[in-house]
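Re: [help] complex structure
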Amino acid sequence: MRKHLAAACVIAILPAVAQAAWVAISSDAGKRVEIDPSSVRKEEGAKLVVLGRIFFDKELTDPRTNGPYKSIEALTRYDCANRTYVTLKRTWRSVDGELLREEEVRSGSEMPVRTGSLDDKMLREVCRPRTPGDQQAAASKLVDKANAAATDLRKANEAMLQKEAQKGVKNAALATPAKEAAAPAPGPAAATAAAAPVVRAPAPRPRPVRRPAPETTHDAVRQHAHIHWDYEGEGRPDNWGKLKSEYATCASGKRQSPIDIRDGIRVDQPAIDFAWRPSQFRIVDNGHTVQAGVSGSSISLLGKQYELLQFHFHRPAEERINGRGFEMVAHFVHRAEDGRLAVVAVLMESGAENPFIQTLWNHLPLEKHQEVSPPTTMIDPSGFLPADRGYYSYMGSLTTPPCTEDVLWLVMKQPVQVSAEQIAIFSRLYRNNARPVQPGFGRLIKESR
Ligand SMILES: [Zn+2]
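Output below.
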């Protein structure tokens, strides 16, 4: 697919390897944003599809699979005439380019490209006219990168071989050839790994996720568990840590959520800058909660931006405030580019009917795991925020397995009202989907005064 790239000069180093030619678009603390100009594919009109990636300086942990990743690739379609883009697919890759997880963006809508934004830089790079000279320049950059990658990979290969020798051949049984087909666009690192085939066969591979519905942030890869996590029975919360080794943090973690929020220090906290926008949405009953996804919304806190991925509900509310419980809570899960999670919690109490909730409930899917994307209905999450933007903040975890820690919790102090009937509707689906409060272990809690 990328063979038209002038790769002749690379062949001496990496024979017969199709190679992504990453060209840096921007680079700042901890990460580079790159595109592969040779991947550009024309579509109808002035639309171009291109493979880009964020390459991080250090390994990060994927909250969904708990696996380590070093880069996130994104297949994006840019409309050069209308200055819009839509993300088609995201792929998480490990340090040696192995596929960790893929996420098809099924109902992505076209987003406007804001002037001066990173997407603006991407669009300009992708949409500018291409000449043969460009490709030569890209190819010479590629040689430098390939040399560096070869050195890195030799080290990584040696380390992996050592690890494999310790583990024995058992892991070879886990290798699934299908995954090779699922990784059509390996980065330079992976391509170099292919040049040393001895590593590839026994390498332990992340297990593919086989589920009918889109995986959620709170869900773990769990097809090997005989007992699924739940809120009652064998899979109840106090057993989560024993169900799977990946869930160990649920039992052993010292920064678990939810907590009873009390004894916070009252200070002037920075305002959360909510850029929650109206958008279309998708909604699914994923077997643990009702969850909705939107696009184009984010928050900023202390200059760091977190994109809103999804929100979902618990009944009763998981968190307590000075011992007090609430009817329900909505968790708005955000992720920054570096993978850090921030969850905004909006507590809900019984009162007036809530139009935001009503729109969601109107579109509740009839079947579990069947996602619904209403074609013409918009929702505006900002309409759900309480008038008072004061909040509590503390460091915690996901409240469902694998209970990953290092999650920034932002719990709005003022609850919002929903009607008793709206609460009753959710109760028909989930009477109790709240994890009990966890020990605080002396964690600092801040409270807006
Ligand atoms: Zn939650």
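Residues 1-209 form one domain.
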